[in-house]
Amino acid sequence: MSNTITAKAIARGVQQTPRKVGLVASLVRGRTVADALVILEHTPKRAAKPVAKVIASAAANATNTFGAKEDTLVIDNLQVTSGPRLKRFRPIARGSANPYIKRTAHISVVVRGDEKPKKKPAAKKADEKETK
Fold first, then answer.
1. Which residues are within 8 A (CB) of 48 and not within 5 positions of it... i.e. 6 or more apart?
2. 38: how many CB neighbours lie within 10 A of its CB?
3. What is the CATH number of the domain that holds 65?
4. Range of the domain at 21
5. Does residue 51 contact residue 28 with C-beta atoms inside 8 Å?
6. Is residue 22 one of the residues assigned to a domain?
7. How far apart are CA 76 and CA 39, in angstroms?
8. At what angle do helices 33-41 and 18-28 cross, to 10 degrees?
9. Structural domains of the chain, count
10. Is residue 106 part of a domain?
11. What are the average pLDDT values for consecutive 10-residue runs of the chain, which has 132 residues?
12. Average pLDDT score, the chain
């Protein structure tokens, strides 16, 4: 039995409300990475692009850094939390201004997958040693 590997990726300060990003994140929570990317590619929401980028980044971290099999990757944890809020003002009638808040979100993804089997080093042949 092979070991399981976890890798994570975080996108901070995504310029969209956490509520809207959370709706998209709930579509792919618990699925395989390949399924999640296909679903997000066909989701007509603006939040689908940053969520897909974070999932792809976590998958790349798992395969390139930790040596996980790409076809066994599953989304283990997908959280959307609120980021810093930017307070702005909008002009209204008679020279007044109304305050409003631009909300941002943090997206964190943890993927889990099986470890690739280690390759054994090739044994050198006795013939090659003698000729050199």
1. 24, 40, 41
2. 14
3. 3.90.470.10
4. 4-115
5. yes
6. yes
7. 17
8. 130
9. 1
10. yes
11. 86 96 96 96 96 97 92 95 97 96 97 87 70 62
12. 92
Contact 58, 9 (CB under 8 A): yes
Count CB-CB contacts under 10 A for residue 8.
15
Q: Residue 127: its pLDDT value, please?
A: 63
* Residue 100 domain flag: yes
- Residue 17's CB: how many other CB atoms inside 10 A? 19
- Single-letter amino acid code for the residue at 126: A
Beta-carbon count within 10 A of 111 CB: 29
pLDDT of residue 120: 80
**Residue 44 in domain:** yes
Token reading at 18: 């956490």
**What is the CB neighbour count within 10 angstroms for residue 28?**
23
Question: CB under 8 Å to 121, separation ≥6 — which residues?
Answer: none
